UniProtKB/TrEMBL annotation:
<dbReference type="InterPro" id="IPR015422">
    <property type="entry name" value="PyrdxlP-dep_Trfase_small"/>
</dbReference>
<dbReference type="InterPro" id="IPR015424">
    <property type="entry name" value="PyrdxlP-dep_Trfase"/>
</dbReference>
<feature type="domain" description="Aromatic amino acid beta-eliminating lyase/threonine aldolase">
    <location>
        <begin position="4"/>
        <end position="288"/>
    </location>
</feature>
<dbReference type="Pfam" id="PF01212">
    <property type="entry name" value="Beta_elim_lyase"/>
</dbReference>
<keyword id="KW-0456">Lyase</keyword>
<dbReference type="InterPro" id="IPR001597">
    <property type="entry name" value="ArAA_b-elim_lyase/Thr_aldolase"/>
</dbReference>
<feature type="modified residue" description="N6-(pyridoxal phosphate)lysine">
    <location>
        <position position="200"/>
    </location>
</feature>
<dbReference type="GO" id="GO:0005829">
    <property type="term" value="C:cytosol"/>
</dbReference>
<comment type="similarity">
    <text>Belongs to the threonine aldolase family.</text>
</comment>
<keyword id="KW-0663">Pyridoxal phosphate</keyword>
<protein>
    <submittedName>
        <fullName>Threonine aldolase</fullName>
    </submittedName>
</protein>
<dbReference type="InterPro" id="IPR015421">
    <property type="entry name" value="PyrdxlP-dep_Trfase_major"/>
</dbReference>
<dbReference type="InterPro" id="IPR023603">
    <property type="entry name" value="Low_specificity_L-TA-like"/>
</dbReference>
<dbReference type="GO" id="GO:0006567">
    <property type="term" value="P:L-threonine catabolic process"/>
</dbReference>
<dbReference type="GO" id="GO:0006545">
    <property type="term" value="P:glycine biosynthetic process"/>
</dbReference>
<dbReference type="GO" id="GO:0008732">
    <property type="term" value="F:L-allo-threonine aldolase activity"/>
</dbReference>
Length: 343
């Protein structure tokens, strides 16, 4: 039995989701008349209490469109050193937005109002103009840790004080919400834009949404076309999204309890030095200095367990819709047998 914990993106659409996709009414989304895309965009905007939404191929595209739309060339973006927008989007802040970055060393990828304040550029011709703050929730590189609404509200206050925009990379936002019990509606008023991914924990084959004000989304739609991201009969993919928002949010709790269980098991392995606190569906652990993550991932693969390296001695597991209790039992057995041979 292959146990694939490389990412929550590896899920395949369920039979019911495929059925919804098969039956979707479609049109031409570039011409603005795909009814299922329009329905998904409206549903998502309403969910967050925001005005409009834009359905896109990926979270990288929605993040990059947000940064491009909020900033002008030469502006400065504040984000954490571990953030996806900085580390994993091909240098897109520089390439797409022609903007610079002030990197914050937060706590496991999380910013605080004080850290944001410290990184705002002074009014000085030597300096770029601070325009935008980006948060990530949950934080991938932070081991899936999350913000609460009061923490974000305090950051929003600093942004208001300095006239800064606030964007959320919410690729795994629903994982945070299911833990805190907070609602999407409480997020809308805090942000100028929110990006969510349907292709992670929610189990869609493809798709992300950018949510914001009508004028902002209109401009982002122009940039999406400019970057070649306009798509035509995208309604089948949007149907998967609608299905996922209706059926796949509450079950994220299961992914979290399975991840916590994995965290406990991993913590007992002699070669494991530390496990990041498991708060959602991500388990990151640190190996002892004599074991490289690349070698360890290879040993895991030989046992039919797929994971990714997350640093020289760091390995990441992510639980998801296609990871079952049966697989968890099998994983438990394999871990108890041991991964590193002790000779
Ligand atoms: C996966 C992810 C994204 C978007 O990735 P795509 O593969 O482009 O959809 C953005 N932010 C975070 C934190 C992610 O984990």
């Amino acid at each position: 039995m292959l146990i694939d914990l490389r990412s929550d993106t590896v899920t395949k659409p369920t039979p019911a989701m495929r059925e919804a996709m098969f039956n979707a009414e479609v049109g031409d989304d570039v011409l603005g008349d795909d009814p299922t895309v329009l329905a998904l965009e409206e549903k998502t905007a309403r969910l967050f209490g925001m005005e409009a939404a834009l359905f896109c191929t990926s979270g990288t595209l929605t993040n990059q469109l947000a940064i491009r739309t909020h900033t002008r060339p030469g502006d400065d973006v504040i984000c954490d050193q571990l953030s996806h927008v900085y580390l994993y989007e091909g240098g897109g802040i520089a390439v797409n937005a022609l903007a610079s970055v002030s990197l914050v060393q937060g706590e496991r990828g999380k910013l605080t109002p004080e850290l944001v304040r410290e990184h705002i550029q002074p009014d000085d011709i030597h300096k770029p103009i601070t325009r935008l703050v980006c948060l990530e929730n949950t934080v991938n590189k932070g081991g899936g840790c999350y913000y609460t609404v009061p923490e974000i509200a305090a950051i929003r206050q600093v942004c208001d004080e300095y006239g800064l925009k606030l964007h959320l990379d919410g690729a795994r936002l629903f994982n945070a919400l299911i833990e805190t019990g907070e609602t999407p509606e409480s997020y809308g008023p805090l942000f100028d834009s929110i990006s969510i991914c349907l292709s992670k924990g929610l189990g869609c084959p493809v798709g992300s949404l950018l949510v914001g004000k009508t004028d902002f989304i209109k401009q982002a739609r122009r940039f999406r076309k400019l970057m070649g991201g306009g798509w035509r009969q995208a309604g089948s993919l949007a149907a998967a999204g609608i299905y996922a928002l209706d059926h796949h949010i509450n079950r994220l709790k299961l992914d979290h309890s399975r991840a916590r269980k994995i965290g406990q098991l991993i913590g007992q392995l002699p070669e494991v030095k530390a496990v990041f606190p498991v708060e959602t569906n991500i388990v990151i652990f640190q190996l002892s200095e004599n074991i490289l993550a690349t070698d360890y991932v290879e040993l895991l693969a030989q046992k039919g367990i797929l994971a990714v390296t997350f640093g020289k001695h760091l390995v990441r597991f992510v639980t998801h819709l296609d990871f079952t209790d049966e697989q968890l039992l099998s994983l438990e057995e394999k871990l108890k047998e041991g991964i590193v041979s002790r000779s």
